[in-house]
Structures are given as C-alpha cells and as structure tokens.
Amino acid sequence: MAVADFVKSARESFRVGWKIESNWTDPVLFATYQIIRPLASLLIVAFIVIIGASVSAAGSLFYNQYLAWLIVGTAFYAYVLQAMLGMSLLVFIDRNRYEILKNIYISPGTLHPYIIGRGLVSVVNGTISVVLTLLFSEAIFNGVLHMNIPLNLLGVNLFMLIPAVILGIIGLLAIGYMLCALSIVANRMEFILGDSVSGIFFLLGGVIFPISLLPGPVQAISNVLPVTYFLNTVRESFGLLPVSNYTSDLALLGVTTLVALALGILVFRGAEQRARKLGLFDRKSEY
C-alpha cells in the first residue's frame, strides 16, 4: 500500500508539475518553446565548427563523423539541462512564490514522491527537446545543406540506446535530488545553481569535444561523472563510437549512477534534518 501511495503521489506531482512548466499553454506552442534553446545551442556550436574548419577538412570523413558526434552529444545534453535547471529551482519556486513547500512537507506524501514527480516533468521536457533537435538536425544538415553527415536516426540500436537513456536519467535525477537538498538549506543561490552545474557537465561530460583533450587532473573528474558514460553509450548506440566499448561504458554508467543515488539520499537526509532544525521549510528569500 505504501508503494501505491508513493506512486500516486508522484503521479499527481507530475501532473501538477507539467501544468506549471507548460503554464497551461497550447501543447504545440510549448513543444516549440522546448526546442528553441537546445536547437539554438546546437546550431551555434555546429556552425562555429563548420565555418572554422579549413577547406581541406570540410567534407572529410573525420569532419563529418565529428559533426554527427557533436550533434548527438548536444541533443542528449538537453536531459542534463532540463534536469539541473528544473530541479534546482523547484524548492525556490514552491517555498517563495507559491509558499506551499511547508504544506507538502507535513503531508502524508512527504517531499520524496513530490520531487521525483516534478523531476519526471524535466525528463519529458528533455525527451521532447532531444527528439525535435535530432529531427531538425537531420533536416537542416543532411536535407537542406546536403552535408552527408553519418547521422542515421532510423539505424540507431534501440537495444543499446534504451538502457543507456534509462540509467542516464536515473543518474541525472539523483544529481537533481542533491540540488534540491542544497536549495533547501542554501539562500539566494537558486538561480545560478542549475546553470553552474549544467555548465560544468557541459565542459567535463564530453558534450562538444572528447574528454581526452582535457588536462589530466580534469579528466579524472570527468571519469567519475555519470554524464560522461551516458553520452558515450548514447553515441555508441548511434554507431559514432566503437561498439566494443559499450558494455564497459554501460557498466561504468550503472556504477556512477548508483553512487549518485547513494549520495543524493545522504545529502537530502542531511539537508532535511538541518532544515527541520532551523525552520527553513517556510523561509522566504527576499530580494
């Protein structure tokens, strides 16, 4: 019965979160809004590469392969961006704007299913962005510009892609859980927290260039991030990295995801105890 109540609370949280995120707007308009930011980021980076490439490099096998590698990484980075931004602002919005965080906390459902349900809204938004970005990329670079980039959306290995995406989403939600915990005990940092963390993942996760190009000490940080192995396994499912590395990358993604989950639970429990002790659940940040 407890599991059923948890699922019901998470489902209702998802429904409310979806209404808040979409602002009760037209679904087509909302989907268009969701694609603008990731598609704009992709086009900026891709055209910097296209314009900056030498004439001899343009059209080469490495050049086209790298552009496909870049497109897939930037598209699936939308999951990172949506999860970090959505979950880092969750506490601030509900505690300051709507003033309902304290009421949710003392309810039978508690905060845990509520945060998970709201986090799943970010997952759905990220999925919309990923799908539309990939479709637009195929249409623009191969359809309009005829660049023959090796990006075959129909040829992706779903048996490799689906486990990678599921584990990646779980790891990102665990990190978002930590951001929620930090937002509960922190003050006046909510607006930069999500952008800062997603920016770190953008640099260290191998979104636009391989982590092998980073300095050695920085590579050590990249090698413990779930985002790194998430993007590796996704690219391997598209055939943009050696398929032979998929099993090891998927195993490392699972390990880093479990570590993120454990850390998320510990950090949230510590933040919850501190917030209860100091009365932070109904605190308002005045600007």
Strand content: under 5%
Task: Give the count of structural domains.
Answer: 1
Number of helices: 10
Query: How would you state the average pLDDT, rounded?
Result: 85
Outline the low-pLDDT stretches.
none
Main beta sheet: none
Shape: globular
**End-to-end separation:** 43 Å
Q: What is the succession of H and E elements?
A: HHHHHHHHHH
Percentage of residues assigned to helices: over 70%
| Class inferred from helices and paired strands | mainly alpha
Q: Can you count the beta strands?
A: 0
Gyration radius, to the nearest Å?
20 Å
Task: Write a short abstract of this structure.
Helix content is 76%, strand content 0%. It is mainly α and 287 residues long.
How would you characterize this protein structure?
The protein is mostly helical and 287 residues long. It has one domain. Helix content is 76%, strand content 0%. It has ten helices and no strands. It has helices spanning 2-22, 27-52, 61-97, 101-106, 111-144, 158-185, 190-204, 216-222, 226-237, 246-278. The longest helix has 37 residues, at 61-97. The protein is globular, with a radius of gyration of 20 Å.
Tag the structure with descriptive keywords.
287 residues; mainly alpha; 10 helices; 76% helix; 0% strand
Protein topology:
Blueprint: H1 2-22, H2 27-52, H3 61-97, H4 101-106, H5 111-144, H6 158-185, H7 190-204, H8 216-222, H9 226-237, H10 246-278
Helix pairs in contact: 1-5, 2-3, 2-5, 3-5, 3-6, 3-7, 3-9, 5-6, 6-9, 6-10, 9-10
